[in-house]
Each structure stands twice: as structure tokens, then as C-alpha cells.
Amino acid sequence: MCQKCMVTSDHCNSNYPASIVQDKHKDPTKREFIKRTSAVLMSWGLLATGLVNASESKTVNEKKRIIPKPENVLTPDQALERLMQGNGRYVSGNSKPLDFHDVKTSLVKGQNPYATILGCSDSRVSPEHCFDEALGDLFVARGAGNYLTNDNLATIEYSVAVLNTPLIMVLGHESCGAVKAAIDAVDRHRDFPGHIQLLASAIAPAVRTVSEIAKVSDTTEDRLIHVTKQNVIMTVERLREKTPILDYYHDRKKLKIVGGIYHLDTGRVELIA
Ligand SMILES: [Zn+2]
User: Fold this and answer.
1) Quick one: which of 154, 182, 190, 220 is 20 to 30 A from 109 by CA?
2) Are 114 and 166 in contact (CB under 8 A)?
């Protein structure tokens, strides 16, 4: 069974290089998988983006390409600092003007985003706007309620292993409709039609956790923001524990995973995890 595409090896259509897929099918243990495939993964990612430096092997250097947006090559701490500085500009009304013509040439042949955002689909919370960034800066996975699915986990792993993104932020926000739905589903044992129930069920553990461990006043708004924060915190925890690929980079200090809440009234992003 392939741990990535969750089918038998005969039907695996994973996009991993063949050597990685073959190794994973032969050896299911996490540590040995990481040991045997990390070099392949690293070189694959570097070659895919052109992100190589002088210390890399001759083979890699021979295939070196121009780095798109070299200012985006950052450490995890630098990436977080830049992200929060951008939010500061946005909050103060000093966002930089966006000009597609400034970046289009550098991005035609590749991308080099410095942060990955797992955010809610809510139309009031746009990562590029609230962090005052341009094309090519942020790799974004969005879905109502910003909870983790296998599909957006694949997106996140791709951003880390292939694009070398050093920072993941899970971004929730005030007055989230998906979180409200989850609270409603738990309180009233309500089933939503179609696939909507999926998001309520995914966030339900955060609702229950807040009910069990938090001393929360029973006002609707207080409870909503507490569950929203808990959902972000639990998603961050899942990402930190979820996969060998993220573990590999996280353990080597090449990746930071944080959580934030966007305040609708001020535009400020509050770091909470
Ligand atoms: Zn939302």
C-alpha cells in the first residue's frame, strides 16, 4: 500500500520520483524511509525550483537555473518575520502597490514562495492581501474552516519538499462560518446536506476539546473564537506530527509551522501557535 496515494503499489500514481515510490512500497517504516529517500527528495526539490547554492554537488550545479525572486530564499524565522511585517503594513494602510509587470518575467519559468498558508476560503480573508505580498510569494491552500485534509496535505508537502518553503502558517479568522456550523452540528446533532457535513465533522473535535478543557464563558462570540483558535492549534499539531516529509524538514530546523488568527475588524494576524 502506497502511503501517499493510498492504493496498492500496482495502481500507485504518486508523483514522487520512481525511486521514492519503490522504496516506500518495500519499506514501510518511517525512519528508514526518511533515511533512504531524503537525498532523492532534496535534490528533486532543488532541481524542480532551481534553488541550488554553491555548496551543492557538481551534478546539481550543472543544472542550475536562475532563481525566481531570490529575495524569497529565507530561513524559517526570517520568513515568519517577513510575513508579520507584511501584515503590519496591511494593518497600517501602507501596503505596497501591486504591479503584475514587476514580477511576470521572473515567474514565467518557476516559483519560489517563501511561505505556505493553509487558510479559510472566506472572502474576507485573502492571504496575499493581509500579508501584503505579491505573485510568487505565498503558496496557498484554502478551504472553509482551514482544517487538514489529505488533499491539502499533499499541497503542503509539495510546497515544502519541492518548492523548499520554510514556513507553514495555519490561518483561522474571526466569525468563521465553518466553525459556527461545527458548533451547531455538535450542539444540536445536526446533519448538513451534501458534503457540507464534512467540514462540520472535521472541526467537531475542536468544539469538543474546548467544551472539555476550556473555562469559557457561554456567550456565543467567546465560544466561537475559542473553538476557532483550538481548530488552528489542533491543525498545527497535526501538521507537526503528520508525515515523514514534514518531519524531515521540521526536525532539521528547515521548516517552521505556526498558527494565526485574522481579526476582521483590524486586519491584524495574531500568532497563537
Ligand atoms: Zn472561515
Assistant:
1) 154
2) yes
For residue 175, what is the enclosing H or E element? none
Q: Are residues 49 and 102 in the same domain?
A: no
Q: Give the tens place of pLDDT for each residue, 119-147.
A: 999 999 999 999 999 999 999 999 999 99
**Are 79 and 133 in a shared domain?**
yes
- Residues 34 and 74 grouped into a single domain: no
Whether 136 and 112 have beta carbons less than 8 Å apart is answered as: yes
50, 65, 80 - which closes a domain: 65
- Reading the block at residue 195, the C-alpha cell is 458534503
* Most confidently modeled range among 13-22, 169-178, 220-229, 234-243: 169-178
DSSP assignment letter at 68: S
Q: pLDDT tens across 75-96, in order?
A: 999 999 999 999 999 999 999 9
Residues 61 and 91 in one domain: no
Same domain, 94 and 218: yes
Kindly give the distance from the C-alpha atom of residue 82 to the centroid of ligand 1, in angstroms, as a whole number: 24
Rounded distance from Cα 120 to ligand 1 centre (Å): 5
Which is it for the CA torsion 76, 16, 144, 99, positive or negative?
Answer: positive
Please tell me whether residues 75 and 168 are part of one structural domain. Answer: yes
Cα 175 to ligand 1 centre (Å): 7
The SS3 assignment for 61 reads: helix
How close is the Cα of 91 to the center of ligand 1, in Å?
Answer: 20
Mean pLDDT of 219-236: 93
Distance 25 CA to ligand 1 centre (A): 38
pTM: 0.80
CA of 140 to the centre of ligand 1 (A): 15
Q: Which domain holds residue 19?
A: 1-65
Which of 65, 81, 97 corresponds to the end of one domain?
65
